[in-house]
Write a structure and sequence with these properties.
One of its GO terms (molecular function) is citryl-CoA lyase activity. This protein is 47% helix and 6% strand. By secondary structure, it is mainly α. A hairpin with a 2-residue loop joins strand 3 and strand 4.
Length: 293
């Protein structure tokens, strides 16, 4: 008795043997079916474009847009995305993600592990403000009053994400990014709704204060990503992608320096201690001397 046969590969009704039976090949290949790329011998299609046509013709930011959105951006959209990615690449070795990557690099792990260590710290608290700001912007665009949202955050003693900065009285990245958004609004490339929402929140935060609370990098890039139509969660992903450049740069610099097992404090300094004073362990068990001896 002859075994199952397989028609020519690639045909719509092609079958593949699975144990004692055959199943349509498409049911197997569709297990990882994707609209992002098609890889065959001698062929690489990215969202339908042959990779050889993209190389040298599109920027990295345009390629990112193509991969996550499915189509190439307009020149203005590509410029806005690139500006946001450039602006957020680094904020110095005091940033936890970068400090962790530098420490990892001194522990002899590979560069990929050092970068993964840093990127792994980008969560809700460190790295999540952009996504959170996009969600707040959406509330204002949806009709909620910016003053009421600010009052809500103040009532629970929380920071409005995307505004204020621990180091900068006015974030130097704010103005050039927002100016690019204004140019895109004037050109009819974006609606300006997120920009207006951000400015309303900024104005509401300034009311009743001697010093304003200007927008920071998270707020400015949140406006760009929202104006470009990215979902909030993907906005965080784009921030992680951007900051990974700085993480990579610092990890590489640290690995080139040759330091070993570099901790969070310089070696002459020791971490503070606020536990009990030094004390003796009471005698217990086998250490106790029996009575009468």
């Amino acid at each position: 008795m002859s075994g199952p046969t397989t028609p020519s590969a690639g045909g719509p009704e092609a079958e593949q043997p699975v144990g004692e039976r055959t199943v349509p090949e498409r049911r197997i290949t569709d297990h990882w079916s994707t609209a992002v790329s098609r890889i065959r011998p001698g062929e690489i299609l990215l969202r339908g474009y042959p990779v050889e046509q993209l190389i040298g013709k599109v920027s990295f930011a345009e390629q990112i847009w193509l991969m996550v959105r499915g189509e190439l951006p307009t020149p203005v959209q590509g410029r806005l995305l690139e500006a946001a990615l450039v602006a957020a690449v680094d904020h110095g070795p005091q940033a936890p993600s970068i400090a962790a990557a530098r420490m990892a690099a001194t522990c002899g792990v590979g560069l990929n592990s050092a970068v993964a260590t840093g990127a792994g710290l980008l969560g809700d608290v460190h790295g999540g403000a952009g996504q959170q700001c996009m969600e707040v912007l959406a509330r204002v665009v949806g009709g909620e009053d910016a003053r009421e949202i600010v009052a809500e955050y103040r009532q629970r003693r929380a920071y409005v994400p995307g505004f204020g900065h621990r180091f900068h009285p006015r974030d130097p990245r704010r103005d050039p990014l927002l100016e690019l958004v204004r140019e895109a609004v004037a050109a009819g490339e974006v609606s300006g709704d997120a920009l207006r929402a951000g400015e309303e929140l900024e104005a509401a935060l300034a009311e009743g204060r001697a010093r304003p609370v200007p927008m920071n990098i998270d707020g400015a890039t949140a406006i760009i990503y929202a104006e470009l139509g990215f979902p909030a969660e993907l906005g965080r992903g784009l921030f992680v992608l951007s900051r990974s450049v700085g993480i990579l740069s610092h990890a590489w610099e640290e690995s080139e320096g040759g330091a070993r097992i570099k901790g969070p404090l310089p070696r002459p300094l020791l971490a503070g201690y606020h536990g009990p004073a030094e004390r003796e362990l009471p005698r217990r068990g086998a250490d106790e001397v029996p009575a009468g001896e």
